[in-house]
Amino acid sequence: MTAFIPIPRDTAPPRARMWGEWPRAAWGVGRLALSGRKLADAPRGDGRGVLVLPGMFNGDLSNVALRRYLDTLGYRSYRWELGRNCGTRAIGMDGERLVERVEQVAAETGGPITLVGISLGGIMARLMAHRRPDLVRSVVTIVSPYAGPATATNVWRSFEWYTGQKIGDPAVVAMAAEVARPLPCPATAIWSPTDGLVNGWNCHSEDEAGCRAVRVDTSHVGAQLNPDVLRIVAEVLATEQADQAVATRASNARNS
Question: Nearest Cα to 135, choosing from 175, 172, 107?
Answer without folding.
Answer: 107
